[in-house]
Amino acid sequence: MRSAFTGIHGISATPEVAVVIDVMRAFTVAAGAFAQGAERIVFAETLDEALELKARHPGWLAFQDGPVVPGFDLANSPAQLRSLDVAGRTIVQKTTAGTTGALAAAGARLLLCASFVVAGATAAVLRRARPRTVTFVVTGDDGTAGEDPACAEYIAGCVSDAGLTPDPYVARARNSHGAARLAEGVRLGWEGVHPEDVSLCLEADAYPFAMAAAREDGQLVLRPVAPG
Predict the structure, then answer these.
(1) Staple 206 to which of 56, 64, 117, 153, CB 3.0 to 4.6 Å?
(2) Are strands 90-94 and 40-43 parallel, antiparallel or unpaired?
(3) Is 31 exposed, middle or buried (0-12, 13-18, 19+ CB in 10 A)?
(4) Where are the beta strands (DSSP E) in 123-195?
(5) 140-189: per-residue pLDDT in tens?
(6) Where do the domains of the chain lie, and which CATH numbers do they carry?
(7) Cβ contacts of 173 within 8 Å, gap of 6 or more
């Protein structure tokens, strides 16, 4: 398997197989929601679209990133997610990096969304699919976020070596600008940022499922998938 790495703006043609990475924090939150029993996640292109979808579907929840926005149920914090009842629910998610990257790669035959918490399972899905080339889309900070390439490289390495240790990759993410920014947000008391967010984002292989996105009724929908 050949691995190619790009940012969102580097997607010039639809990849055959794409893995979109957002460690801090969109796809850590998405994985946590599935672990807590969420049924599916619908990606929205704008905040307005997310709120419109929520309004049209009673019982749906809406997640966003950045400062807390009225009408949304969560501001992308994996720690704050733990106190939210999402079992059996549909979630609409709109983030600057992760969901934007997924929508940019939406034409891929196989589209996986990943972070460290589902890295091993994502690699197992790729081993089963045996694609010739996998395009890893690193999304944070316009493709420059240190935690996302580290996660992408860990997943790529796990495809050929299932026993690969995540430690050096997690260490890179721990020392990234993204981790430092969240720590600064905690220090400054930002809403939507929790002191445990970084540590939760760095729990490699915490969940036994991967996450695959596909079009359903005109929307890009994320669901958990078994690796085997």
Answers:
(1) 117
(2) parallel
(3) buried
(4) 133-138
(5) 887 778 999 999 999 999 999 989 999 999 999 999 999 999 999 999 99
(6) 2-225 (3.90.1560.10)
(7) 23, 24, 116, 146, 147, 150, 151, 179, 201, 202
